[in-house]
Amino acid sequence: MKMTKLSALAMTTALIAPAAFAEDMANEMTLVSWGGAYQSSQHKAYVEPYVAANEGVKAVWDESSAEAVAKLRAMNEAGNVTWDLVDVVASDAMRLCDEGLAEEINHDEDLAAAPDGTSASEDFGDLLVSDCFVPQIVYSTTFGYRTDLVGAEAPTSVCDIFDLAKFPGKRSLQKRPIDNMEWALYCDGVAKDDIYDVLGTDEGVSQALAKLDSIKDSVVWWSAGAETPQLLADGEVVMGSTYNGRLFSAIAEQNQPIGMLWDMQSFDLDGWIVPAGLPADRKARAMDFLKFATDTQRLADQAAYISYGPARASSAPLVGKHAELGIEMAPHMPTDPANAGNVHTYDYEWWADNRDDLDAKFQAWLVK
Amino acid sequence: MSDTTQNGPVLAADGTPLKRSLAKALRMQKMRALMLIAPLLLFILVTFILPVGDMLFRSVDNRIVQNVLPNTVIALESWDPASTEIPGEAVFAALAVDMKAAAEIKVHTKVAKRLNYENPGLASIFRKSGRKIRKWDVENEGPYKERLIELNDGWADIELWRTIKTYSGRRTMGYFLNAVDMKLGAEGVTVRPENERIYNTMLIRTMRMSLIITFSCILLGYPVAWLLANLPTRTANMLMILVLLPFWTSLLVRTSSWKILLQQQGVINDVLVWIGIVGDDNRLVLINNELGTIIAMTHILLPFMILPMYSVMQTIQPTYLRAAKSLGATNWTAFWRVYFPQSVPGIGAGSILVFILAVGYYITPALVGGTKGTFISNLIAYHISTSGNWGLGAALGAILLAVVLLLYWVYDKIVGIDNVKLG
């Protein structure tokens, strides 16, 4: 009670005397993220130390990242952007950047360099997939299976998903064409490098759907990341795809009998964008926080709360143990060499062009 | 009439013609009534009708192409899309000017996105070229046809030009045609290939399942409403709480509870297996299909059926039933010929409420419907919040609205809307 009163007092002083604080920066910022364990890892790793270092700054969370593109568009049309920093996946960042809804960022000037002096753009490397995007983490969509329900021999290949004889029972897949189509083609004998060339043709789409048809009756389709861990825990499915961090928390934090199948895991990125058209004071605050929250140490700190790989190369050696469980985090990262033996590289650009078309075909196939 | 023409118009006390005086009084009254409802009318206009109208307008709006590529559209006017030759240098020069201007303010991707809906793959041609053209000197660096094709050979594809030409108007039927599984191409309107047809199926399914849900609600709700209306007030009020309690519970909580109950390793299946009615390896599939959506939505919408039925049944005099029976009617006849007709307005009101709510539902079908139990509203939500194709979402919404209004009109013709009572 005393604490809240004190902080309320601090807040009022902050409102009365804004000039006393860092020149020309807003004292409040609205951060948008995904909620759940992921958002709380960001809060602990980025926001708490930032607020401790910048007294009087207040950060408010909004759990709207799933609808970020639609909401930012609507805000932009209404001329009232209420968000300061938005956490989105890479493909959304590219769309927002293309539509001029996100601010372009000069990665070397606006972001901190690595401790050894390597420039930010070099440190992030290939992960800077858009001019507006500052990646934070590498996550993957991969498979988990019930160790007690799959029989004596655990699945080792992504193609075991399509093998109903060897692994009977239901499996859960995400209700969208991305990843599923690629896995289907890969397991139908298409070479990894040719997947997108094949998928670009009508025959390729039919081939992928035919492969998915072979397991269609045994698939439970999910749309929220929490569904597969729940379905696995209930024994509703024997294996299923989801984000690797969700599986980690089911395995390590909730001790569920679940094993990881990393084969052909699909890498994706998550990171920040700054909405276009912010007033100068709010933009200054957002950029200041962005610089702080994406430095080498902060990205490594986040990995202590969730098993997503930091996007900076220089952060990787600093990844330590889980903050509460005390287990080594490196082996649970999608980027760990032991897990990344055979990965699927998801082609953002190809999907940006073909998403609408493939979605229509995929949805039509689903309802048949 | 003849009197007034002969002796002049009838005058009011103050000397003005009575007709005008009356009209004035009536107008004053109407104005006063309008002033009284003005705040509400304004509120509804600003917060409901205008936004909905604006959203629906997007289903035909196609200004983006003319706004971003004005010179190209004009230059293309003389080009015949049926020809086998791509347009000449003049069109390419206009395109270069338009693209440079657009790329500087980053709007070329917007038009790319619009055209990509109609011809997948166009977006990347615009996007990739935009980056380069930004640095061109478009005044005197021709020939642009060669340079553009060198930049990206997509510009040499005649289909691209046909798409731009077809979609260069300020209004388009493209979204509406897409919403009924058709396509507007250079050679006119065609039906989409079989593997892309989806919206008609979904619309019919939405209507069919909403009707099933409405009928299940009538079947389940009628006895409950009857019981509530005929029990002593104290007991009825107690039971009423049981009807209202789920009504006050969050929609998500109720839907998730159905998930726990219905899934294959869920409570219902566990009990059935334990009793021995179904085998352990043969558990019933009650969720992630049509059945799951029907069960969960019937439960969620049931109060909307029971409440109007209950308030209508309360007004039915029990003496009528007694009179019928004393005149020799059996229990069934007394109910069917005397009681039921009087309760029809309640069924009508409940059915309209439940049906219209059901048609627009999307959270519950998304959670328990799997692939076979989702509604067209799930696709609208998808286009608004995920794919970003607001035009198509708006067209689907407009069609849904039109269908509901049509059904309302049919209902009015058959049953009569005056025959609906909420109590």
Describe this structure in words.
The complex is a heterodimer of chains A (368) and B (423). By secondary structure, chain A is of the alpha/beta class. Chain A has two domains: 2-132 and 274-318, Periplasmic binding protein-like II (D-Maltodextrin-Binding Protein, domain 2, 3-Layer(aba) Sandwich), CATH 3.40.190.10; 139-268 and 337-367, D-Maltodextrin-Binding Protein, domain 2. In chain A, 40% of the residues lie in helices and 17% in strands. Chain A has 14 helices and ten strands. In chain A, strands 1, 2, 3, 4, 5, 6, 7, 8, 9 and 10 form a ten-stranded mixed sheet that branches. The radius of gyration of chain A is 22 Å and the shape is globular. Chain B is an all-alpha fold. Chain B folds into three domains: 2-57, no CATH class; 63-196, no CATH class; 199-419, MetI-like fold (Orthogonal Bundle), CATH 1.10.3720.10. Chain B has helices spanning 2-7, 18-57, 63-68, 70-76, 89-104, 108-118, 122-133, 144-151, 158-166, 174-179, 199-230, 233-248, 251-262, 267-275, 290-314, 318-326, 331-359, 363-368, 376-387, 390-414, and strands at 182-185, 188-191. A two-stranded antiparallel sheet of chain B has the order 1-2. In chain B, α19 runs antiparallel to α20. The longest helix of chain B has 40 residues, at 18-57. Chain B starts with a helix and ends in a 9-residue tail after the last helix. The chains are: A alpha/beta (368), B mainly alpha (423). Chain A binds chain B through residues 66-67, 69-70, 73, 95, 98-100, 170, 175, 205-206, 209, 220-221, 223, 234-236, 349, 352-357, 359-361, 363-367, and chain B through 105-107, 109-110, 112-113, 116-117, 120-124, 127, 195-198, 201-202, 205, 263-266, 288, 366, 370-372, 374, 379, 384-389.
Give helix and strand order of chain B, one letter per element, not per position. Answer: HHHHHHHHHHEEHHHHHHHHHH
Mean pLDDT of chain B: 90
- State the total count of DSSP E strands of chain A: 10
Helix content of chain B: 55-70%
Number of strands of chain B: 2
CATH secondary-structure class of the largest domain in chain B: Mainly Alpha
Could you say what the CATH topology of the largest domain in chain B is called?
A: MetI-like fold
List low-pLDDT spans of chain B: 1-5
CATH superfamily of the largest domain in chain A: Periplasmic binding protein-like II
Instruction: Indicate the structural class of chain B.
Output: mainly alpha
Class by SSE composition of chain A = alpha/beta
